[in-house]
Write a structure and sequence with these properties.
Helix content: 40-55%
Shape: globular
Structural class: alpha/beta
Strand content: 15-25%
Distance between the termini: 60 Å
């Protein structure tokens, strides 16, 4: 079924039908056996590999349209499906199939004085709406995590990837059919009309949670307009603080990796804080390494005096997620000033301290209020795979419902369960 606005397609009615079907499918998915879910994932993986040529052909239509519409080289690269990326999609599905099924897990069972047993059971959230941009592989990744966690999902990819996403959706539908699971458990929106997003985030009757993945503008809009709960992070202004008692070599290597391993990710270092007692030792050699790598440095007055090619930072720099080879640096008096700076400017994503002082490390972990707080480790480790979650749907800087990388457990909830043997309350 084609659902382009040019055909006069009525978006609101279409989205209502999608929501109704998702809600019905969610009941079946909540009761689905782990074996059926794993079969679906493995069949989707096989279908994606078998249809690699077709996926690339459909992707070429998106790439051609993107070039005509003036997409940047970086955006076109994010959009492109290579044989390697298609194989990676299939491998990701197999990895999710290999994860333990969280649904039905019972924990915290205890007897109460009345004789009843009270515990908690892990259950799906229900219907998850996911809105994302550019990368077609997100269609497979998101479907896999939602399917394995027993949820139904409505996926709305960017209009620039419409052909690629629909081709992947056909593989997903095949896998669901082979496993005997409802086809409506994963629905990929067919219209490129932007109003579909507006409808999706307002469908309280059918959608339990929205997860946006994309630029800050998209996430701000969804957070502002949604009537459905949103799991999100707006940006990743991540900090490394080099403490008085840091090991010099460790500080340089961790900071360099945090900034340069990849520039365009939300867990990339954006602001470096350095204790003034160690600044003269660490900043000149670290600055040379970063400049040689092509990183532009913007710093406070003390930093600029220690690194000749550093330009003066503005107030705006401390609140900027660069997603580029740019780093802001500030020399601080001590940990108190470092934590104050983080409290004022952090996006609550990831912060790391470099120190050999156990007490300082413990204090940093306790007082810094971010979704990931680290000691002597690169901020680039703030990732679901690196945390042993197997995969992630995104990273949440909210405190409710999920915080940090959102894996399978983040797509579930807990309900209380009670076992009794005829007890009545007096």
């Amino acid at each position: 079924m084609s659902a382009n606005p040019q055909t006069g397609f009525e978006v609101k009615a279409y989205m209502q039908r999608v929501g109704q079907r998702a809600r019905a499918a969610a009941r079946h998915m909540a009761a689905a056996e782990a074996g059926a879910k794993n079969t679906a994932l493995l069949e989707i993986a096989k279908r994606i590999e078998a249809n690699s040529d077709q996926l690339q052909a459909e992707n070429s239509k998106d790439l051609e349209a993107g070039r005509s519409n003036g997409l940047s080289d970086a955006m076109l690269d994010r959009l492109k499906l290579t044989p390697e990326r298609i194989s990676s999609m299939a491998e990701g599905l197999r990895q999710v199939a290999g994860l333990a099924d969280p649904i039905g897990e019972i924990s915290d069972m205890q007897y109460r004085p009345s004789g009843i047993q009270v515990g908690r059971m892990r259950v799906p959230l229900g219907v998850i709406g996911i809105i994302y941009e550019s990368r077609p592989n997100v269609t497979a990744d998101a479907a896999a995590l939602c399917l394995k966690s027993g949820n139904a999902t409505i996926l709305r990819g960017g209009s620039e990837a419409i052909f690629s996403n629909q081709a992947i959706a056909a593989c997903i539908q095949y896998g669901l059919e082979q496993a005997g699971l409802p086809a409506d458990a994963v629905q990929v929106i067919e219209t490129t009309d932007r109003e579909a997003v507006g409808e999706l985030i307002r469908m309280e009757a059918y959608v339990d949670v929205i997860i946006p993945r994309g630029g800050k503008g998209l996430i701000e809009r969804i957070s502002r307009e949604a009537r459905v709960p949103v799991i999100k992070h707006l940006d990743g202004i991540c900090h490394v603080y080099i403490d008085d008692d840091a090991d010099l070599e460790k500080a340089i290597q961790v900071t360099f990796n945090s900034k340069t391993q990849r520039y365009g990710t939300c867990n990339t270092l954006e602001t470096l804080l350095v204790s003034e007692s160690i600044a003269k030792e660490v900043l000149p050699p670290l600055g040379d390494m970063l400049i040689e790598k092509g990183v532009e440095l913007r710093g406070c007055e003390t930093t600029c005096n220690l690194i000749s090619d550093c330009i003066v930072a503005t107030d705006e720099d401390w609140d900027t997620e660069y997603l580029a080879p740019v780093l802001s640096i500030r020399v601080v008096k001590d940990m108190d000033e470092a934590i104050d700076h983080i409290e004022l400017h952090s996006s609550r994503h990831t912060e790391s301290i470099i120190t050999e002082n156990y007490s300082n490390a413990r204090r940093f972990l306790r007082e810094v209020d971010s979704s990931s707080v680290m000691v002597n480790a690169s901020t680039r480790f703030a990732d679901g795979f690196e945390y042993g979650l197997g995969a992630e749907i995104g990273i949440s800087t909210d405190k409710l419902h999920a915080r940090g990388p959102v894996g399978l457990n983040g797509l579930t909830s807990l309900k209380f369960i009670v076992y009794g043997d005829g007890q009545i309350r007096e």
